[in-house]
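Morning!

As promised:
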Amino acid sequence: MMSAARQDVAALPDAMARGLVLLGRALPWVALLAVAITLPFVANNYWAVIASRAAIYWVLVAGLNLVVGFAGQLAIGYVALLTLGAYTSSVLVARLGLDPFVSFAAAGAVGAIAGVVVGLPALRLRTFYFAMTTLGFATIVTQVALAWQSVTGGGVGVAGPVMPAPFDTPWGFYVFCLVCAALSTWVTMNVARSRFGRALVALRDAEVAAEANGVSKPALLLSVFLLSGGSAAVAGGLFATLQSYITPDAFTFDLSVLFFIAILIGGRGSILGPLLGTILLTVLPEFAAPLVAWSTFLYAALLLAIVLLMPGGIADLLDFRNRTALADDRAILPRPALLSAMLDHIAARDSIMLRGVVLSFGGVRAIDGLDLDIRPGEVHGLIGPNGSGKTTTLNVISGFNAPEAGTVLLGTAPMRAGTPWTRAAHGIARTFQTPRSIGEASVLENVMVGGTIAGRGTLLESLFTLPRHRTDERLLTERGMQALRIVGLDALAGVRADRLQHSELRFMEIARALMLHPAFLLLDEPAAGLSAEEIRRLGELIVQISRRGTGILLVEHHADLIFDICDRITVLNLGRQLAAGTPAQIRAHKEVVSAYLGG
Amino acid sequence: MLPNIIAAGLAIGAVYALIGVTYNVMFSASRVMSFTAGQLGMAGGVLGALFITRLGVPAIIGFPLALGGCALLGVVTEIVAVRPVLSSLEKHLYVLSTLAFALMIQQFTAIEWSTEPQPFPRLFGLGNGGVADEKFWLPVIACAVSVGGLEFLYRHTLVGRAFLAIAEDNFAARALGLPERNLRMASFALAGAIGGLAGFSAGELLLAFFANGALLNFYGFVPVALGGLGNNRGAVIGGLGLGLFQQAANFIVGGVFASVAVFAVFIIVLLAAPQGLFGVPPARRV
């Protein structure tokens, strides 16, 4: 799990308990490091090779973990990047006489480019297609290595880079690999605990919500592919050094499977889990010599077993925090009074204006020439029977659907259709008819996703926890807690979101939307599934948000709530406006009453 | 040289097309793309060589035995790797479960059969290695017969229509009382037999080699991606096109860059037309 933000939240009373929690979290890392450091003093050279191999695999798996475990992309052919890196550095050293360190850097650069090329299809294709592309890449790299004899030596192979002293002994090289492994652990952990890591998981589990919160899938995924491709190829260079001589046979698809299973055994979205998985899978065959021939078969069987029986992996087993029961009688008590601190500086701005919007799905006109204004500081209700085009209207405004005719204006400027990730920058936030949350992340982390575009630091700064990254994290954590206090969920900040009740998820989505300091808030049936008392509190909260200057579009079926809190109401029927006006006018509108409200 | 390129291209292209059809048949029944498609092709070759060469069974009996073995493998795929994940919320688990099962098949073959390519028996002894050799036209005939047979099955038989109904709308088909699970298993058996036929007919061309599975997995998927998911005619056109392109590239730029060229074309086409050249883009649900 992403555990960064949880530290600040633990609703533990005293500092000592908090210290204990921190210690418990650091313990596995300290133990691993201690074992890694004592190893050279207690084991023989054979184990130096095994341990170096584990460290090298981890350099690759750490990067791959961001792609597979965090972004949820099924990149199964990463052995190709290992191969590419191994051959690049070996050929550069053997044929051009370059320095091994320079060759590692060159391999990293080549691998980063290859990682992006192989990753490109992930932006547009379905899961299986992407998995297949990486598999195809793995097949082809091996074929090229075999066939391109003048460079790779074909089946005969090529000598790997030779390290200079003091890294030329088994244990010397081990230390070098260990440093690389530690570095990749640190870097990926920093990414995981940054807004980029949260955005990756959001893309995996709630892509639509991620885009509505301003996460640009192409930019983020490609930078991750760049990073993981580079680290995989550097691992390749180290691998070639360790092998001292490489042939295409050394890079069987089995290795890809090993990397992949290490992550799945470890658990998605964890770093410690996949690390333990990598060590386990590297070391295990040493204890089961008779089974070596069957090792890939057993890995595959293990993969099948994990997928079918234990999708959460080791990380889930170690996640004790989320096994303690939550209180049964908890209530959501929003504190709208705190809004003034959060939404202080929303100046009156332009309205969102829809003019003549038309959109059909196949032969059905979902919206048929709709005009609608959302003004700052007003609650605008959008009601109508099922299928009248309410949610579609919301989707047009937030850019998920492109209208065939008509425009969506913000003030006087038209907003580009089909670009949902640009809406957050305009201050347009939304919630969803079915709450879109990241089940495996904590409530606070879910909410912090809403503030993604508020961060100032770049991914590069996050890699090395430079000051701007730390400022961003502090700011987002603070703001996230503030938003949770406003909607009344602060006591649940550290809880996994998939343990929340439905009504709590609805309020969590509002908190996430508040992170944007929204100029406009689009709410899609926020009261559905709430109790009468919760609906009353929700109404109060919505009114108070609008009083801070935010323009609100409220799609709802609860007529009472609509008539209580809306300043203006539009009634839709079959994609057209049936009526529009103040609540009093709508209540008196004959057609509306007979068609929709009943009476 | 040109006749050679065309003969080899059509032959290997027909194998790719058949593996593509194998993917499609499994996909129609379950909405699952299974990594076992290529392994079924590999198994067809290996089982053929096992029964006919190693065990000395006459070809006329060895052929149905090999196909039956592959059909069985298809059914086992359904039971072990597909059915358990169909009900799961995480819809992409099938990618991993079928990959795992495919690897198990491949490793089992590597250990129990051989890690080296083994000879496949001459079936009819027609042709002497030239362009008219049986190794070139057997796969083409197998492809034509299977695709024609499938068209007949889907259009003119009740079972075939039931397959189509399941593929079109699973829920509605079940509501009508169609035995969805049995039909799915039958589809996987059928897919297994088709994959096996691909491997068996191409045995003299590709030999009985465990590593063929991974290769066919990818090159058999390319026609599916080009032709659009579930579109058998698209798969045939895509497969034959791929075979010819690959052989031509092999001849013109050499083996190293032929593979790279195929891969590059694959990625470019997919980026330009993610739904395939003959497919329909899916609607997005928010």
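Confidence is low (pLDDT under 50) at residues 1-12 of chain A.

Hope this helps with the figure draft.
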